[in-house]
Each structure stands twice: as structure tokens, then as C-alpha cells.
């Protein structure tokens, strides 16, 4: 009769542990995405292993920067509208990315592209495309 419910006894500690776990997952995802970005920009690959689509979205990276090898343009692809499972690794998206301009010129889907980096914002005048380093022109 005079006992307290389990929710009252353990509810707060369970909620706090769940919040800490979610924050730790977000931090781990952000570090994995940063490591992949540095590997892609510093060594130009390899793209494998890469973080998953869900990891990138959880870490706040909403865009994937892709470079067309035909016309040498950089474009961003929004990760939140891609119709793939959240467990899909980022490097598997490379085979599906097509350059619209090159495809129109050639008359068939032109699929030669290279993954550059994960981005938090789209390419704009204030946030230019990533450059390979050291010393790309």
C-alpha cells in the first residue's frame, strides 16, 4: 500500500541515462563524419569505410558534396531526401549520383563522379566548395 511506483523510483535516472546515450551517439557520429571528411580531403579517399546515412544526418551533415569528373563542377546532394535506408554507407551512394549537365550534353546518364566531403550547408558564395589539400588549384 505504501510503496512507490517504479516510475517514480527509477524514471528520472532512466531518462538521464537515455539523454546521455543520445548525446554520446551524436558525438560519435560527428567524430566519424569529421574523420571521413579529413580522409577524403587529405588523401582523396578511400571512401570505404564511410559513416552511414543515418550517422551523417544525426551529426548534422545534411549535404554530400560531389565532384563531376566530366565537367569538373562541384554539386551538393541533400541527404535527407535520398530514398535509401539509414543504414546505407555514404560510399554506396557514389554509383547512383549523376551529373545533370553532362547527361544532357551526352544524351545518356553520365555517372562518373567522385565523393568529396560531407557538408552542413549547401555550396554558395559564402560557403564555397571544398578543395583538395595540400595545394589544389
How does the SSE layout of this entry go?
Blueprint: H1 6-43, H2 53-59, E1 63-68, E2 74-78, H3 100-106, E3 113-119
Antiparallel strand pairs: 1-2, 1-3
Helix pairs in contact: 1-2
Please identify the structural class as seen in this structure.
Answer: alpha+beta
Low-confidence stretches: none
Largest sheet: 3 strands, antiparallel
Number of helical segments with 4 or more residues:
3
Proportion in β-strands:
5-15%
Task: Write a brief caption for the model.
With 137 residues, this protein is of the alpha+beta class. 38% of the residues lie in helices and 13% in strands. It has a three-stranded antiparallel β-sheet with strand order 2-1-3.
Features:
137 residues; alpha+beta; 3-stranded antiparallel beta sheet; 3 helices; 38% helix
Textual characterization of the structure:
By secondary structure, the chain is of the alpha+beta class. It has three helices and three strands. The protein has a three-stranded antiparallel beta sheet. The protein is elongated and about 75 Å long. It starts with 5 loop residues before the first helix and ends in an 18-residue tail after the last strand.
